[in-house]
Write a structure and sequence with these properties.
- The chain has 14 helices and 13 strands.
- It has two domains: 195 residues, Glycogen Phosphorylase B (Rossmann fold, 3-Layer(aba) Sandwich), CATH 3.40.50.2000; 169 residues, Rossmann fold (3-Layer(aba) Sandwich).
- It is globular, with a radius of gyration of 21 Å.
- A seven-stranded parallel sheet has the order 3-2-1-4-5-6-7, with helices on both faces. The protein has a six-stranded parallel sheet with strand order 10-9-8-11-12-13, with helices on both faces.
- The chain is an alpha/beta fold and 378 residues long.
- 47% of the residues are buried.
Amino acid sequence: MLVTFNAHLLTGDASYRSAGISVYIANLLRSLSQQHAPEDDLDYAVLMGEGRLPSDCEMRVIRAAWPTAHPAARIAWEQAILPDVLRRLGADLLHAPAFVGPLMAPCPQVITLHDLSFLRHPAFFKRANRLYLRTMTPLACRRAAAVIAVSEFTAREAVALLGVAPERVYVITHGVDPRFRPLPPEEVARFRAEQGLPERFILHMGTLEPRKNLVRLTQAFAQGAPADVHLVLAGGKGWLYEAIFAEVERLGVQDRVHFPGYVPAETQALWYNAADLFAYVSIYEGFGLPVLEALACGTPTLTSATTSLPEAAGAAALTVPPDDVEAIAESLARLLADDALRADLRERGLAHAARFSWETTAQRTAALYRQLLGAMER
């Protein structure tokens, strides 16, 4: 049975486009490939544009001639060309890993739903992105044979906001890559020296965009962190990020707030290990993978008490209301001052993160493929 996977959003470029969904696609395909055996009942074909599979992922790749790195071209290809590609391949199932699949697909589809922030917080998106997702996602998800929600929270959102039948929504969480772990102190010290990092700093890692709540985090930092502590806002520039830089200027903390830009996958674990604590007080998340990665590295973490983030953090992080600057500032100050609390959160974080793996994500995803294909045969 042929399972086709639309991986056109898989990219290795050094920008925000390599975060989030691209990480999900790369890790899921890698784990599916490593579990795949010649006698398996599933065969895979990966549909791609200019991107590339992870080096340790062996799957058949079918490349499109269209320049699908450009969003408009990718959307047109998905809706106009992909259905014919699926027919020619004789595809039995299509996995669309990012909100939308072709409305005229000749085979059943699985769609992964990462969050519904474009419905809950439309002001956080550019107009074109917002209109596309608000129009196409409900149509695609209601037509899909199954919708993968990356958290229990997102599953509830799919039912409430998109009208997807609960029995067609399957919760399959993200995993955490084994490279996210406590690293040898001498390796971390060498990295700190190479990067010229301050002695003490709070880290945020994620795309610079309004949903990440970085204006409030900067305000709380200026209010609650001692003068010798710095704030590192690591991540590629996404959209509508100008207010973050403006707030740093307004607060006069330019010498203590750092923007290293996009962080490549190879060094992310070093950044987590080097930080005194990780702060991720996002307004809305469908899962919150950076929280899990920080916990896996043993980094004490502060995150939001809303949406999916309590699921990602479990009982291993401090949580705060994301709209309460005073509460964020007080929690930052408490974490920075309390050695015993940081040590406790470190142990809790390591234990919690150990429950998540991409191998499990892939196993459950492949089981869903087989369930749907088995139902088609009956």
